[in-house]
Design goal:
Elements (H helix, E strand, L loop, with lengths): L4 E2 L13 E2 L4 E8 L4 E2 L4 E11 L4 E2 L4 E3 L13 E3 L4 E2 L4 E3 L2 E2 L3 E3 L4 E2 L4 E2 L3 E3 L4 E2 L4 E2 L3 E4 L4 E5 L2 H27 L1
């Protein structure tokens, strides 16, 4: 079986405490996972021309693609991919060189592009397209293509953001426990 971790130019992914990476995922290069993070089947993450950082208790679900934008003379920092704490990234999402705050739900099939900044406590609807450089204000639901602010999150939705992250921490703990017992 292949390792889901691959170095690039001598830099290997670093994995936080009690994190889970599915064997079918692939993480390449300059990637940092926080504690209790989970990476699910068929995730492809390339920290080759810039870096990726994923915060504590965040989860990246099946088939998601994570990538970055290279550094250039006109953009010396390029666009790294920065994902906060307690973030849930739904199946088949694509995040490219963007910055995602804490307690965010990225819906299935959503696309977030270079330089986009997503505030904390945000829900991005399934299939949503967040264009390059767009800023999503904290505390709102965004839907559509391109993404538009739909309405403020209610208390139940705000609570669900943490519940979702906690559910994935429990699930990854089950997977880690199962792996240890086999």
């Amino acid at each position: 079986m292949h390792s889901p971790l691959r170095p690039y130019k001598g830099i290997s992914p670093t994995i936080g405490e009690a994190s889970y990476i599915d064997p079918s995922a692939l993480l390449v290069g300059d990637i940092e996972l926080g504690d209790h993070t989970s990476i699910w089947p068929l995730v492809a993450a390339r920290g080759d021309v810039n870096h990726i950082k994923i915060g504590d208790r965040s989860n990246v679900q099946d088939g998601t693609v994570l990538h970055v934008t290279r550094k250039t003379t006109t953009k010396p920092a390029g666009h790294p991919l920065l994902i906060g704490n307690d973030v849930t990234i739904g199946h088949k999402a694509m995040l490219h060189g963007c910055n995602v705050g804490d307690r965010v739900l990225v819906g299935m099939g959503a696309i977030i592009l270079d330089g986009a900044i997503v505030g904390s406590d945000v829900i991005i609807g399934a299939g949503c397209l967040v264009p390059p450089g767009k800023k999503l204000e904290s505390g709102f639901l965004y839907i559509g293509s391109p993404a538009k602010q739909a309405r403020p999150l209610n208390d139940n939705e705000r609570a669900f953001l943490l519940t979702s992250a906690e559910n994935y921490v429990r699930l990854k703990n089950d997977y880690l426990s199962n792996a240890e017992n086999n």
